[in-house]
Input
Amino acid sequence: MHLSSKLPSLDRAGSWFLHSGIQEPSGGVARYYLSDAGQNRRVSTEITGYAVSTFLYLHTRSGERAYLEAARRAGRFLAEVAWDPGLRVIPFECGKADDAGQPRAYFFDSGIILRGLLGWWRATGEPWALECARNCGASMARDFAPEAGPHPILELPSKRPLPPEPRWSRSPGCYQLKAALSWYELGEATGEEYWPRHYETVLRKALESHAAFLEAEADPERLMDRLHAYCYFLEGLLPCADRPECAEALRRGIGETGRLLREIAPRFERADVWAQLLRVRLYADALGADQLDSAAAQEEACRVLTFQLVAEDPRMAGGFVFGRRGGAFLPHVNPVSTAFSIQALEMWRQHQEGEFQPAWHTLI
Output
């Protein structure tokens, strides 16, 4: 597959983000659209953070102001609705109970939100975004104790760390390095040296623990979920890809993720894992950390594209489904799967045209 200089899948996915209703009038973005139930899940602060970055990326690729306006509304939602000035933290789903039945805050979500706000600040220079990003970064350092893990989840309003659970997203792990990228970027934005020191703390722990992360799960379907999280670790290595230990982790991680993904995919596959692996391959090659396996990258691009929906219903048309089980689509039309997929496909097109630049700050 050779993608043309105009990528139709990008336009269709952009239209889905703008017109499907996945972004609500408040600016908040729903976790996903459930096609079998015909409704959106609740607005998620994490997904809204991803959406800011996605709308900004779409704006840079198309120049359409509608994406910039959508990014502004999502950013304002995070700064004015999601941020809790009393607790000085951004809760999961704006303080509502999560699936476990109680209000919580997540370290990972906070990092994704912070990166979205910094993206808006870099694009516009508007001070409110940097102020909220700083507040969010301070909450991550103060409340989640990065030197201890960091703690993945806090109970609200007490901010008591919850005990780890077997599920990867409720336990400490190397995947938190992607959230810690936000501190690295905050240091660049402010010139304040203590922010990247927090990143270095999480980096050290992630390098020590990442080898055991995939080994901790034997069930193939749950291992596919862990591959998604493990790719977050690989993405979090990009600012230091020139360091020998980070380059080695990237090389080994790309190889192992590709092997396991292909083994498990006939049973269960996730669009985001294919897209994340393709993105990190391209970055690692461009940054000199690993030589690109072009055949594997082309296969991954082809697989990613198969998850995009062609439908009459605007709530689905152009979006990417979360995954397939036994060859059948799952009913989740997913903003994060869509964002990762269109970026991976566009980066692959740029690579083929000799245009790809490894600016990791634009990584959604």
About this structure: The chain has two domains: 1-41+220-364, 62-216. The CA atoms of residues 5 and 349 lie 7 Å apart. Residues 62-216 form a domain with the Glycosyltransferase fold (CATH 1.50.10.20).
